[in-house]
TrEMBL record:
GO MF terms, alphabetically ordered: penicillin binding; peptidoglycan L,D-transpeptidase activity
GO BP terms in the entry: cell wall organization
Organism: Rothia santali
Pfam families: PBP_dimer_2, Transpeptidase
Top-level lineage group: Bacteria
Residues covered by the Penicillin binding protein A dimerisation domain: 52-134
InterPro entries for this protein: Beta-lactam/transpept (IPR050515), Beta-lactam/transpept-like (IPR012338), PBPA_dimer (IPR054120), PCN-bd_Tpept (IPR001460)
Domain Penicillin-binding protein transpeptidase residues, every copy: 155-474
Protein name (record): Penicillin-binding protein 2
GO cellular component, one term: plasma membrane
Length: 480
């Protein structure tokens, strides 16, 4: 009898061990696979029907979860989506998450390590789980202005505080309505995504930080100017030859000078004058004299080639390697295989504005849990020293002259010193260009640095859009 009881207990214990082992295996070793299983409808409903935290600008929700009357508890909604979609991205049950919805998913869903105690409190209180809110550094009025300036064009505008790295505006055009991709109607979501994804204007790309990067054109001459001064071979009084056509070594072609300014009026030029008129040939000579390594080193010091999260992932800007002298001459004026983001160009100007110190750019000011505990609060962080204070201040003076007496005069603000540099990047044989402006104001106490690019415009249109657009941004910040 005792033996029978013993066997029964052993069998029961064995079953218990098997059940416990199976449960442990499922919960700890198979949890991720089961969560991702497309047949796991409960996980689908939990994930896309939860109360995600809001994304806010100036205290106003631009992405939030709203109670729904379907099988899900909540529906993700986006306010002013065309204005913010490149940043918020979308949270889609068909296509997953992009933008800040992806980059800040752990916080927005309430699953971050910092929200552990909030989750425990919700379990014991029986309350519903809520994600954290994410407050952005954006200035809503400035974001609206940047969006309006880009209307009807392809391009991007970035504005940031050069002293702190806070991104004040980041617009990409064309944009899209994220609500169409966050719907719980899978059929309509698939149709909307198909249309957006096949659009040759690439509305799903955030042109400010990703997508097909741009040739920076003559804005890259700021890098050349810094490299020249750092080398010790050039100073404010240096004079260079300014031919209207520069023979490129090892080729049968010449590099033409810029034809829209006054480059043809002088056969020699100082760096200041060449920068103000955006003359190509003096800067190509500087680059070939200093060599690829020096120009590349300077570009790296300003952020080229660096991985970055703001927290959105930023595609690194690139400066080509293993070039011959002809290719280096073209790269020195922002052509050949130089590729950049508008954010990188804004960071370059910010470093000059901030006495040579480049601050780490950031989009997120504060993250607060549902119980209003602060999980994260922005603090300014230095990314690198790009150049010395003396060099930065000299280039700053040259950029002020570019607005006062050069081809960037359209950015001038009455009663305020403005620093700027224009750029024109050839994009093919069509005669159209990518038109640039970058700069900052006030030059003696910078509050905002900008980068503006318009795609596929002629020279006259580019001049009407870039520098005057920058002036409006400067005025908006200075008049606050």
């Amino acid at each position: 009898m005792n033996q029978a009881i013993r066997r029964t207990w052993l069998a029961a214990a064995g079953v218990f061990v098997l059940l416990l082992g199976s449960l442990t295996y499922v919960q700890f070793f198979r949890a991720d696979a089961l969560d991702e299983n497309p047949w796991n409808s409960r996980q689908l409903y939990d994930k896309y029907g939860s109360a995600r935290g809001s994304i806010l600008v100036d205290g106003t929700e631009i992405a939030y979860s709203e109670a729904s009357n379907d099988g899900f508890n909540y529906q993700r909604q986006y306010a002013q989506s065309e204005q913010y979609a490149a940043l918020t991205g979308y949270f889609s049950m068909v296509y997953g998450a992009t933008g800040l919805e992806q980059a800040m998913n752990a916080e927005l869903s309430g699953d971050s390590d910092a929200q552990f105690y909030d989750r425990i409190a919700q379990i014991f209180s029986g309350g519903e789980s809520h994600g954290a809110s994410v407050e952005l550094t954006l200035d809503g009025e400035l974001q609206q202005l940047a969006t309006d300036l880009l209307e009807g064009h392809q391009g991007s505008i970035v504005a940031m505080d050069p002293k702190t790295g806070e991104v004040l505006a980041m617009a990409s055009s064309p944009s899209y309505d994220a609500n169409a991709l966050a719907s719980h109607d899978s059929t309509s979501v698939i149709e909307a995504y198909s249309q957006l994804n096949s659009d040759p204007a690439r509305p799903l790309s955030n042109r400010a930080i990703a997508g097909d990067l741009y040739s920076p054109g003559s804005t890259f001459k700021i890098i050349d100017a810094v490299a020249a001064l750092e080398s010790g071979k050039y100073d404010a009084d240096s004079t260079l030859e300014n031919p209207q056509d520069l023979p490129l070594p090892g080729t049968n072609v010449t590099l033409p000078n810029y034809v829209q300014g006054n480059c043809q009026s002088q056969s020699t030029a100082t760096i200041e004058w060449a920068l103000a008129q955006s003359c190509n040939t003096p800067f190509a000579q500087i680059a070939m004299d200093l060599g690829q390594d020096k120009i590349s080193e300077t570009a790296t010091n300003f952020g080229y080639g660096q991985d970055m999260g703001i927290p959105l992932s930023v595609t690194p800007s690139t400066f080509p390697q293993d070039m011959n002298q002809s290719q280096l001459a073209l790269a020195s004026i922002g052509q050949y295989d130089v590729r950049t983001t508008p954010l990188q160009v804004a960071m370059m100007s910010s470093a000059i504005a901030n006495d040579g110190v480049q601050m780490k750019p950031n989009l997120v000011r504060t993250v607060r849990s549902n119980s209003l505990n602060t999980l994260y609060e922005f603090s300014a962080e230095q990314a690198r020293r790009s150049t010395s204070e003396d060099v930065a201040n000299q280039v700053k003076d040259w950029m002020v002259n570019d607005v006062d007496n050069g081809i960037a005069s359209g950015a001038a603000v009455s009663g305020t010193k403005v620093a700027g540099k224009t750029g024109t990047a050839e994009i093919g044989s069509s005669g159209l260009n990518d038109a640039w402006f970058t700069g900052f104001a006030p030059a003696d106490d910078p509050q905002v640095a900008v980068a503006i690019v318009y795609e596929d415009v002629d020279a006259a249109t580019g001049a009407q859009l870039t520098s005057p657009g920058a002036r409006q941004i400067f005025e908006a910040v200075l008049n606050k």
